[in-house]
Amino acid sequence: MTLSRSASTYWAIVILVAALLMLAGIAALPYFKISELDREIAQMQAQLPELRAKVAHENDLKKEHMDLASLGQEKSLLLEGDKTGVAGANLQSLLNAMVTSNGGTASSIQILPPKDDGNLVQISVSVSINVGIDGLRDIIHNLETGTPLIFIDDITVKTIRQDFKPLDLHYIGPLDVTLQVSGFASQAGAS
């Protein structure tokens, strides 16, 4: 089939315009990418003052920590133990007792490598437990408010799928919980 001269010219112009539009789109793509990057940079710059304020606050907390350490007031807030292994075992024992007393069971407890922090050493423990929601609430409350000072560094909570519904529709549990907590021991006794 042969096309007339005017139809051939028409299709040639349509193909040329389509090709030019495609080239214009390709040429404009970097501009759109740059504007997207500019928006991301602007968002990050907006977050920068907040992050700087947090860093400044962290330095204040470290100074306060050093002041307390120099006064010797933190002794009752530290983990007991003349060596990091003993302090870690004491933290492990404390966690196990706390979980058990709140109706939970610990499936694994792992002492993580200690980290030096000035004149103190940070002892961290990862613990996996099965517990109901009320027991979890009490464990977290006891960790955050008790002595020695124990900090919750990370927490993961998952529900255990049950094939039946409990009698109490508001009951949530049991839960699979993984906690990473840390406490501090005196550096002088670290080994």
Estimated radius of gyration: 31 Å
E-strand count: 5
Q: Approximately how much beta-strand content do the residues carry?
A: 15-25%
The assigned structural class equals alpha+beta
Low-confidence stretches: none
CATH topology of the largest domain: Alpha-Beta Plaits
How helical, in percent, are the residues? 40-55%
- The appropriate CATH architecture of the largest domain is 2-Layer Sandwich
| Major sheet | 5 strands, antiparallel
CATH superfamily of the largest domain: Ribosomal protein S6/Translation elongation factor EF1B
Q: How many structural units, i.e. domains?
A: 2
Distance between the termini: 92 Å
Note the total helix count. Answer: 3
Shape: elongated
Indicate the mean pLDDT.
Answer: 83
Task: Supply the CATH class of the largest domain.
Answer: Alpha Beta
What is the string of SSEs from the N terminus onward? Answer: HHEEEHEE
Question: What is the topological layout?
Answer:
Elements: H1 5-71, H2 84-101, E1 105-111, E2 115-117, E3 120-131, H3 133-145, E4 150-159, E5 175-186
Antiparallel strand pairs: 1-3, 2-3, 3-5, 4-5
Could you please describe the fold and organization of this structure?
Helices cover 51% and strands 23% of the residues. With 191 residues, the protein is of the alpha+beta class. Strands 1, 2, 3, 4 and 5 form a 5-stranded antiparallel β-sheet that branches. A hairpin with a 2-residue loop joins strand 2 (115-117) and strand 3.
